[in-house]
Structures are given as C-alpha cells and as structure tokens.
Amino acid sequence: MRSVAGQVFLFQLMIMVLFAAAAGGALVVQARDSSTQEARQLSKGVAQSFARAPGTLAAMKSGRPTELLQPRAEDTRRNTGVDYVVTFDPQGFRWTHPDPKLIGKHIYALREGGAADRPFTKTFEGSLGLAVDTTVPVYDTDGVTIVGFVSVGVTVASVDDVVMDQLPQLLGFAGGALAVAAGGTALVSWRLRRQTRGLDPSEMTRMYEHHDAVLHAVREGVLIIGSDGRLLLANDEARRLLDLPADAEERRVADLGLEPGTAELLGSGRPVTDVVHLAGDRLLAVNVRPVDPDDRPAGSVATLRDTTELRALAGRAEGARKRLGLLYEAGVRIGTTLDVVRTAEELAEVAVPRFADAATVDLLDPILSGAVSAGPGPEMRRVAVHGVDGARSLYPVGELIRFVPTSPVAMSAERGRAVLDADLTASGGWMGAQDPDRARRLLDLGFHSLITVPLQARGVVLGMASFWRSDGVPFGGEDLAFAEELAARAAVAVDNARRYTREHGLAETLQRSLLPSSLPDHSAVEVAHRYLPALEGVGGDWFDVIPLPGARVALVVGDVVGHGLHAAATMGRLRTAVHNFSALDLPPDELLGHLDELVARIDSDEEGERDDESVSGATCLYAIYDPASGLCSLSRSGHPEPALVHPDGTVEFVRVPGSPPLGLGGGEPFETAEVTLPEGSRLVLFTDGLVEDRERGFDTGLQALRHALAHPGRTPEETCRDVLDALLPTRSSDDIALLVARTRLLDRSQVAEWDVPGDPAVVAGIRAEVTGRLRTWGLEEMAFTTELVVSELVTNAIRYGIEPIRLRVLHDRDSLICEVADGSSTSPHLRRAAITDEGGRGLFLVARFAQRWGTRYLARGKVIWTEQSTRSPAGEPEEVSAETLLDQWEDASW
C-alpha cells in the first residue's frame, strides 16, 4: 500500500464498496416500497373479500363467532399468503388470530389514524412484528350498524425476503468490478517499478528532496561533470562561487571562463581533497570524486567550499584559544604563595612573552604590609618588572613612583577600568611629563603600545598592572578585554595574599605579645628558649618558666590545635590559666586536670560558632623541679615526652604516662612521673613541630633530636642552636617551641631541716637553732621576724596538725624560705580577729612580716611556707616593739 499502484487500488476498492453499498441501499428501499404497496393492496383485497364473504356477517352475529370464523380466517391466511387475518367485535375484542392465545384479547388504538366507519390501511408494530394492516368494517343488513371488523396484515419481514433474493446478483457484480480493478492496478504497479528501477515512493521523495536541497539550499557548490568534460549539473552555490553563465550546463568545463588551474582540475576527473584554488577574490577548497555507474559512461562529482572567511575565523579562533590557555595558566601559576610581592611577580611572568613584551606591577604601600588602602593615590611602589632587555629602562623594583595625572596609570586608577594607549609615539605627552629621559629611552627601544589595568578586588584598588609591547601589532580591543580578565584573576590572588599577610602579622604579633619576652633568672635552672612561627600561619605553641615557692620552678610547654588568631588567643588564655593554677601550688596532675576542664569548657562555649580553624583541644607538658632535692615531677596531656641529657651526653626520653589532649580526655585522671635529675643535666621540652613535618615522620624526628642533643658540656643556648640547625625544616608548616633547662642543686649549707616532736615545749629550742643558722648565713637582722614566723607556723602545726612535723629553712639568693610540713590536710585561713578573741592573730602577723606565704598540699599532708626577701626585710611595727610581740606567747604554752 506504500506504492502508487497500491494506493490507486485502495482508492478503487473504496469506490466499489461505496457503490455496492449505495446500490444495495437503493435496492432495499425500492424493494421495500414495492413490497409495501403490494402488501397494502393484498391486505386490503383480502380484508374486503373476507368481510363480504358469505357467512361472515352471520358468524359475527352468531353466539359463537370464534368457532365459525377462526377456521375460515386461517384457511384464508394460508391460501392468500397474508401474515394474519384477525376479526374482532366493535369493542375491540378479538374473535380470531393466528396465535390462539391472543383470541379474546382487546386491541387498543383500534382506529388510530383512521375512521371507524370505513376501511383504512396503516403500518404498525403488532404482536407479529412490523406489519402493513388493512381494517374493514362489517355492516349489518341495514348498512348502518357495524357488526365487527376484519383486519388483514402482511409483516415487513416478508418484504425483506425479496431483497435477499436480489442481493447475490448485486454482490457478484461488485466483486467482478473489483477483480478488474485489481488487475489494472497490478499492471500499473509493474510498469511504475520498471520505470523507477524498483524505488518505492518514499525513496523517490527522499531523492527529490535531496536533489532540491543540493540544487538550491546547500551552502556548498556541487558540479556533476560527464566523462567527456561537459558540465551536466551545477547547483545555485556553485554558480555563485564560480560566476557561471546561465547556459553553463551541457558545455565543456574548459569553455566556462574559469581559472586555468581550476578548469583543468575539474575536467581531469582525478580525485582530490580540499585543494585550495583562487577563484576571483575567493579561496575555494575543491574536492573531486569519480563516479562509475554500471550502464553509463564514467564521470565525476566536484564540491566547492568558500574558505576565505573560514581562514580569517580560524585565525581569530586560534588567538582566542591561546588567550584562554594563557588565562588557564594564569589561574595555575598566580597565587601559588601567600606573599604579596611574589604574587605580583607571578602576574608579570605569566604575561611575558605570550601577551606582552614587558610587564610591571605597582602596588599601594599599605597593601604590602597587609593593610587596606584608603583609596587609589598617585603614589605607588613598583614590586615587579619582567620582560625583554628594554624593560630595564622602566622604573626599577622598590622605587616609589608618583604618577602624573595624565598618565594611563593615574587615569586607570581613578576610573577603575583599563586604559589602552595603542600608539605611544602619538601620545607621548604624558611620558614626557612623567620622566622625559626615560620616555625617550622607551621609545628608542621600540615600545609602541601600552595597556594599564587596575588590580582591584572587592571594590578596592590594590595597585596597577601595565603591559608593554615593542614587537608585533599594537594592542587592540580584544587585548584590552583579555588584560582586564588577567588582572581580575591576579587581583584576587594579591588580595588573598594581602589578607593573609595582615592576619599572619596580627596573629604573630598577638602570639609574641602573649609569650614571655624574657624568662626569669632562677637559681634552680639555667634556661634558653626558641619560638619559630609557621610560615603558613601562626599556631598556638607556647612555653613558660614559672617560679614556685620553695625555690622550685615550673617548666611548661604547650600546643593549641589549629592556626590563626583564634589559636593564638586561646594560647594566651591557657598560658594565663597555667599561671593562675601554678599560683595555687598544685601538683602537675591536678593542674592538668583543671586545665583539661577549662579547654573543654572553651570548646563547649564555642561549639555554635565553630569553623574549620576553631580550637578543638590542646597539648601540654608541665614539670616541677625542686633544686633542694633534685626531684622533678612531670605530667603530660597529649604532648611529646621530654628529652633528658645527662652530664656525660647520654640522651634519654623521660617516660611520662600519656593522656589524651586537653579537652578530649573526658575527665580521665592524669598521672605524674617523678625522676631525680643530676646536677648539670639538661631537660629539653619541645612541641611536635620540631620533630615532625610533611617530609619526616615523628620517630625519625626523635632520632634526629637524640643525635643533636648527644653532646656533653653544652649550654642551653648552644643546645638550642644545635637542635634548630639539625632539625629546622626549610618551610615549617607548624610552630616550633623549644625550651632547654640545665638543672642546679642548692648547696647543702643553704638548707636546714628539723624533725619537730609534737610537744609545744620544743618550740623555743627550734627557734634558737633557726636564729643560729641565720647568724651563720649572715642574716642576723632577719632573726626577729623569722623567729616570729617559725614560732607561729610550728606552734600551729603542733596544735592543729598531725605528725610527722618537719621544719625546713632555705637560703636561696635573695630569699629566705621557711616551710613547715605535717600530716594534716587542714589549711589555715587568714582572718581578722575581734578584740575579745583569744587567738587568730598569729597568721595575720605572719602575713604582715612575710613577703609571701601559702599552702602546698602533698600526697599525705601539707606544707605551710613563707618567703622573706633578704634585700628589704619586713619592718617592725611602729606601735608595738618586738619584745612586746614575743611576750604574747609563753614558751611553756607552745
């Protein structure tokens, strides 16, 4: 059915079906009308004959009409061929009927459409179906009284039998006509396929559309050339490209007035691909392909394509591709460091030589220090120069340049957009006003065009970038747009470096202000320290040396997790907290416990504002060294163990029980390690940035540290230099804190100790022995106040404390220290006694005459200590003499 013949056959079939249907319908209508008319005549004649038949009137008037009329009515129906003969009385009750069940039944609508006194015929739907019915009245002998009626009918079903008899003839005629049409269609189809070489209509349509498109719509010239060199076909585009005459077809190609080379190529028929030929002012790419059909002489097909504009577009596309590649390279190469000057140098290096022959970058002075400039000004500092040899004639790096208002730099900074000076020789007025000698040298070197672009980020001008050309074509509009894009990317990198410089400087300043500027000179240790901030961000490392009562000293090293201002500020908080906890004279494990709670609270308070650089824990190593005994107590929380260098150069790492970092321990208790340090040994405390970096593991770093420390007789300063020379990385990614303490021991002559019995009577003797020791030390002028302090502390220990009780007096440089230890953990409290109170004044007097005093708890018991300065001993009260004060206590009562 997709062929033309098939479609014609389908059309003829539809016509035949419609014709047969119309003929059948007409036959049915005609047969129905004829049969109906015959039925009307038949039913009327039978009805009148039956009504006038002898015996009908008598039967109707008799008492048994049904018995007399029913046999006669049935004989009449069978003999005449009618469908029914029905008689009924004037009231409509049947006497006869073909269906005995309906005899005696009433007929309604008896006279619908007709009069009751004369015969009438109608068509109605009766009990036997649709029928033609004639009803005739039967009159009495007087001709007036109706005795009954005779109704005779013929059903329509009987009429349709006539149609059914004629229908086979009609269908036979239609079938014959259809067979003749099918034969004709097959013949036509065979002829069409022979003439179209077997192509179906869809293929013929596709070939026509292709042919039409090639001739009129394709924007590529097409020529079909015969084997004899004659032009058989040329489409519209080929006529336009070659300027062919209207009668070009069927003429030889050599006679069409083409360029000799083009005509020879087209007429040769040899295959070629994209051979460029000149046709007038056009460059044509010619392709030739031979064709060799089976039943025709060989020929060729040539296609022509105008490449004039394509070559120009290809040149522009290549330039755009190079600029895009340069922008991509700029995104990779610019901003590799967070250094403002280096970022400016990278911009100049990227631009030369692929975009410009020389490039300079000038920045406002505040930008170099990380500050924000108030606005673009005429003065800028040159930070980068890169280019050909002639670039040396430009202002050198580091020079502060004041640009004249007419210069492109000043105008670009004022307007906030790039300025193009395509011909410096024609607009050299500003160059002469800026620097005549330098302008002359630049023009002599061949610099002929300039683009100046502001480096601005977040609406703030940071500086200017200038691109110079001395070779090639001058800068144009496309170059201006490219320079703006290149400068915009570089400006973001410069601004990031500026912000980093500012934040790094603030953080480093804050951290150095929070770290100790100098360490105290202590009799217990000789110390040296180093602190090196990370190159890529200040961290939270810190160290400290804190004097403690009893000539002891605390050595602290810690590291806050994270970098930046937040880490530095948190480090300051922790260092302050360590000082405060140290003032309570807590043991190392208890101090770290309090510090752990503080860090956890800090993290909890900042949880809602936490970002990627927020603090999440810290590490700390806390050590207390007692020069009187040489005992060192250490505790650590997530921190590396310290190194101990013995006087002979042997190095070991002190085994200190480890604990999680501060703030992450979940309330677990800390442990303390106690070691006795020989005099002259060096205790080295450090943060992990010293031994661990991106190129070196932690264990490797510890081994390197061991080798750097294994030198006897080195001072702390020399030890710090040795360690940093051996372990300092090229680019440190973490802070480094190093603290070296060389231990000392107090001479035994500087320490006096007594075991005190629990009897107050011994106080006087102990006081006398203390006075004698003070005389040995040359501190006779302090005897009075020292006796007062010793008497009060020992008396309170005997009265309120628990044995054993010990008294220790130390002479440490400018200090005199008294310590009374007992087994009770009850601590005295300073209060102001009322006039009526018998006691409560002794501790007040101790606080009055001692420079400092306090309580230190031990694993078992406590120590009450006082410290007096030997340089400015406490004066005696003016109102009360020393003897009066001592008389308040009787020796016997102690």
TrEMBL record:
Residues 522-743 form the PPM-type phosphatase domain. It is found in: Cell membrane. SUPFAM superfamilies: ATPase domain of HSP90 chaperone/DNA topoisomerase II/histidine kinase, GAF domain-like, PP2C-like, PYP-like sensor domain (PAS domain), Sensory domain-like. Gene3D superfamilies: 3.30.450.40, Histidine kinase-like ATPase, C-terminal domain, PAS domain, PPM-type phosphatase domain. This is Serine phosphatase RsbU (Regulator of sigma subunit)/PAS domain-containing protein/anti-sigma regulatory factor (Ser/Thr protein kinase). GO terms for molecular function: ATP binding; kinase activity; phosphatase activity. GO terms for biological process: phosphorelay signal transduction system. GO terms for cellular component: plasma membrane. Residues 362-504 form the GAF domain. Its main location: membrane. CDD domains: HATPase_RsbW-like. Keywords: ATP-binding, Cell membrane, Hydrolase, Kinase, Membrane, Nucleotide-binding, Phosphoprotein, Transferase, Transmembrane, Transmembrane helix, Two-component regulatory system. It comes from Streptomyces luteogriseus. It is a multi-pass membrane protein.
